[in-house]
Write a structure and sequence with these properties.
- The protein has 374 residues and is α/β, with parallel strands linked by helices.
- It has a domain at 73-306: Spore Coat Polysaccharide Biosynthesis Protein SpsA, Chain A, CATH 3.90.550.
- Helices cover 40% and strands 9% of the residues.
- The protein has helices at residues 2-61, 67-71, 83-90, 120-127, 169-183, 204-212, 257-265, 270-276, 287-296, 327-335, 361-371; strands at 106-112, 134-139, 188-194, 199-200, 254-256, 306-307, 339-341, 344-346, 352-353.
- The protein has a 4-stranded mixed sheet with strand order 2-1-3-5, with helices on both faces. A 3-stranded mixed sheet has the order 4-9-6.
Length: 374
């Protein structure tokens, strides 16, 4: 009996020893497994973080990979740059004149308006089929929110704007803002300032080639000895501007890229006009004509390409309504002019006209194919 009891006792001890060793091995295996798992997660997690952050850090310090990334125009015109930042950015100029890529020059149509563009359907017909040869920019009141459909050429073309007042420097600020935003697209070569009441008088091909082949920019800049010309000059503008350099012209201009940059980068004449040309000196009639006459008179045609009618008198040109749009009227606008184009006489003097009321849209659309060619 004692022997049997001894055997059972020995078996009991062995059975207790075996589970204990198994448990120790299992715990050791679990510890090693958990450790390996933690190390793996840490290693691959760090690698993943590095891989994710590396492109971001590289994008901060590396230049764009291709030239296309440098020259691509901004897709979203609603940036957050101040005017000072915008003008600085817009005046970047390449020192090498020859473009290392195929550049298709474009016309920038810049609309200075308070709100809606009621003649949009006429402009859309004019522009149809000429994508890649033009750009559109709209400066309106900040409170105005356009509702152009996504398929319109005017959709998403509004730039950051500020309130403007007629005859004051804020109007020239808006024009400079339009030029600066348009200069961000390196393909824009000619810059046309328009209002919501402007219409094109010829088809796009004629307008495009007329501008691209011109040796000059189109802005009126004449010396008016009367009270509405030299009579507005302030002697405090000297020595930057003296009275013999004082010029007057329409605000509706067309400029090449070189003169557009000159206007945006100006810090010499701007302070003088801002301080000393206030109503009854209307700065939008004198600032750009005077500055460009001083800086680049040989590049200015000294005439505008936007027709208006001053025959009715008053401080503003005539506004035309629905009943004015007749065949006889359009013939008069198109045919009764002569001017100098590239130093040669030309019957084509005006490419645009204003001021047309919203209710003229219907008759203009009806007569445009016959008279305007679009």
């Amino acid at each position: 009996m004692s022997i049997e009891e001894g055997k059972d006792s020995n078996r009991s001890v062995q059975s207790r020893v075996f589970p204990l060793r198994s448990l120790q091995c299992f715990v050791l295996f679990m510890v090693l497994g958990i450790g390996f798992l933690v190390l793996s997660m840490y290693y691959f997690g760090v690698q993943n973080v590095v891989n994710k952050t590396r492109p971001n850090s590289q994008s901060c310090f590396q230049v764009p990979v291709t030239l296309r990334q440098w020259i691509k125009p901004p897709l979203n015109l609603m940036h957050k740059m101040s005017d000072e930042e915008l003008f600085w950015r817009a005046t970047f100029l390449p020192r090498v004149k020859k473009y290392p890529f195929k550049r298709t020059p474009k016309v920038a149509f810049m609309f200075l308006t308070r709100g809606p563009l009621p003649l949009t359907p006429l402009w859309e017909r004019f522009l149809k089929g000429h994508e890649g040869l033009y750009s559109i920019y709209i400066h309106s009141l900040p409170s105005y929110h356009p509702n152009f459909p996504p398929n319109s050429v005017f959709y998403g073309r509004q730039i950051p704007s500020q309130v403007t007042e007629w005859g004051k420097m804020s109007l020239c600020d808006a024009e400079r803002r339009l030029l600066a935003n348009a200069l961000l697209d390196i393909n824009n070569e000619r810059f046309v300032l328009l209002s919501e009441s402007c219409i094109p008088l010829y088809n796009f091909s004629i307008v495009y080639h007329y501008l691209m082949k011109s040796l000059y920019s189109f802005i009126g800049a004449f010396d008016d000895p009367g009270p509405y010309g030299r009579g507005r000059y302030n002697q405090n503008m000297a020595p930057e501007v003296n009275i013999t350099q004082w010029r007057k012209g329409s605000q509706w201009f067309e400029l090449n890229r070189k003169l557009a940059v000159s206007i945006v980068e100006d810090t010499k004449f701007y302070p003088k006009f801002e301080e000393f040309c206030r109503p009854a000196c209307y700065v939008d009639e004198h600032y750009f004509p005077t500055m460009l006459t001083i800086q680049a008179a040989n590049l200015v045609a000294n005439r505008t390409i936007t027709w208006v009618d001053w025959s009715r008198g008053g401080a503003h040109p005539a506004t035309f309504g629905k009943n004015d749009i007749t065949e006889q009227f359009l013939k008069k606008v198109l045919e009764s002019h002569t001017c100098i184009y590239n130093n040669q006489p030309s019957p084509v003097c005006f490419l645009f006209a204003r001021k047309f009321a919203p209710n003229t849209l219907g008759p203009l659309l009806d007569l445009a194919p016959k008279f305007f060619g679009y």
